[in-house]
């Protein structure tokens, strides 16, 4: 069974083609600058070099057609015909309270995703364009939607409600949803597998630290609490996002600086975090390099960032009455030894003891980086959201 996984953004579309007999990736790629002049298609067959083509791609249906051309191309292709694609799985950011798990695409599913446009105005409309484009080009091929929020739907009310008037929750669904759920679900399952223990019996804290960052407390195999909220702005400090702050700062700043709602929103989402404090970059590689070169602002940004991760680990250990496994994943979590070292430093009271040598080793494999006498197992688990989307798509379309 061959499954095409799609992550459609407003001006980009990423794809991976899986052969589910052995879960291998046959090809992957992306279309960038959709709707702009000179769109770029980058296609990478698993066994041949990458190809890049510059073209004019005005909307998502043309982008999907271009992807299918690449997948069946006589030189760069990996399929003899598009009819070899059995199903398509889509990443969808917001599933609201309706989608507690992945779902087959039908009229009802599409209607619900549209109803959620308000909650994720930058993402859900773009995903819908991807779904409609596949419908137009691959008629009759079943599609599945996999939501970033679904894993967190198990959070209890005490975790997901904000202490504001209940009418706002009832009228406008203002509550915490959490994101990166596909990643937290994947890495926690993978960690339990590697440890040879049932996930249901472990207390895990999963730290997904990339451009966006979130921590999740996983109890009895379920998300119990997570740091992102109604939007992906809450929680940890991120590359350009502030994370937690006193909400009174918003009206105060608007008043003092004469900012509009759009401007203050943009300040908190695009001009805060590492970028704001360092005055240099939102990229953790550049921050750490500058810090080692003696840049004081970069050091402050790094220290604020790691301190906030540490506080969430402590909070979640308290929330679950303990912690068995601490996981690091995503771009920064998987690659930055110095970040992991700083986060774990001073957490011996929780039973966290990092093995500095194991932590410093470079590898793409999931592995343990704590000492044998550490009561908490600290692990790096590379995330693979696409694989989980392919698996869910496989499961749901097999049953259909
Ligand atoms: P996204 O949230 O966009 O999926 P990723 O998970 O790919 O992001 O993470 C991207 C981030 O990972 C970038 O900020 C990048 O600086 C960081 N990163 C990648 N490699 C390293 C490294 N060796 N050290 C520190 N940060 C790294």
TrEMBL record:
Its cofactor is Mg(2+); Mn(2+). Mg(2+). Can also accept Mn(2+). PANTHER family: ACETATE KINASE, ACETATE KINASE-RELATED. It catalyses: acetate + ATP = acetyl phosphate + ADP. One of its GO terms (biological process) is acetate metabolic process. Its EC number is 2.7.2.1. Signal peptide: none annotated. Mg(2+) binds at residues 7, 385. InterPro entries: Ac/propionate_kinase, Aliphatic_acid_kin_short-chain, Aliphatic_acid_kinase_CS, ATPase_NBD. Belongs to the acetokinase family. The gene is ackA. The record marks 180, 241 as: Transition state stabilizer. The active site is at 148 (proton donor/acceptor). It is found in: Cytoplasm. This is Acetate kinase. Homodimer. ATP binds at residues 14, 208-212, 283-285, 331-335. Catalyzes the formation of acetyl phosphate from acetate and ATP. Can also catalyze the reverse reaction. GO terms for cellular component: cytoplasm. The lineage of its organism: Bacteria, Bacillati, Bacillota, Bacilli, Bacillales. Pathway: Metabolic intermediate biosynthesis; acetyl-CoA biosynthesis; acetyl-CoA from acetate: step 1/2. Keywords: ATP-binding, Cytoplasm, Kinase, Magnesium, Metal-binding, Nucleotide-binding, Transferase. GO terms for molecular function: acetate kinase activity; ATP binding; magnesium ion binding.
């Amino acid at each position: 069974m061959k499954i095409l996984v799609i992550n459609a953004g407003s001006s980009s579309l990423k794809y991976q083609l899986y052969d589910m007999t052995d879960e291998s990736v046959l090809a992957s790629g992306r279309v960038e600058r959709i709707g702009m002049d000179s769109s770029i298609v980058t296609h990478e067959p698993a066994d041949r070099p990458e190809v890049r083509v510059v073209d004019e791609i005005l909307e998502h249906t043309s982008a999907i057609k271009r992807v299918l051309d690449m997948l069946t191309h006589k030189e760069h292709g990996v399929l003899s015909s598009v009819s070899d694609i059995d199903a398509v799985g889509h990443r969808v950011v917001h599933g609201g309270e309706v989608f507690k798990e992945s779902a087959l695409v039908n009229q009802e599913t599409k209607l619900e995703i549209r109803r959620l446009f308000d909650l994720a105005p930058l993402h859900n409309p773009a995903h819908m364009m991807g779904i409609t484009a596949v419908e137009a080009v691959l008629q009759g091929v079943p599609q599945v939607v996999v939501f970033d929020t679904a894993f967190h739907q198990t959070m209890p009310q005490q975790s997901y409600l904000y202490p504001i008037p209940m009418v706002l929750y009832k009228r406008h669904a203002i509550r915490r949803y959490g994101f990166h759920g596909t990643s937290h679900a994947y890495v926690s399952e993978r960690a339990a597998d590697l440890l040879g223990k049932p996930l249901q019996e472990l207390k895990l804290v999963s730290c997904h630290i990339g451009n966006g960052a979130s921590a999740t407390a996983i109890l009895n195999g379920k998300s119990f609490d997570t740091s992102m909220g109604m939007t992906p702005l809450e929680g940890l400090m991120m590359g350009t996002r502030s994370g937690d702050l006193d909400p009174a700062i918003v009206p105060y700043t608007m008043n003092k600086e004469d900012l509009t709602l759009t401007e203050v929103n943009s300040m908190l989402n695009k001009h805060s975090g590492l970028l704001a404090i360092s005055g240099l970059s939102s990229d953790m590689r550049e921050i750490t390099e500058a810090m080692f070169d003696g840049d004081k602002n970069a050091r402050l940004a790094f220290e604020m960032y790691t301190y906030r991760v540490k506080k969430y680990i402590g909070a979640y250990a308290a929330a679950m009455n303990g912690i068995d496994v601490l996981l690091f994943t995503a771009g920064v979590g998987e690659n930055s030894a110095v970040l992991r070292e700083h986060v774990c430093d001073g957490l011996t009271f929780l039973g966290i003891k990092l093995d500095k040598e194991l932590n410093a080793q470079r590898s793409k494999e999931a592995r343990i980086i704590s000492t044998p006498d550490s009561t908490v197992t600290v692990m790096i688990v590379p995330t693979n959201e696409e694989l989980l989307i392919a698996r869910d798509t496989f499961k749901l379309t097999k049953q259909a």
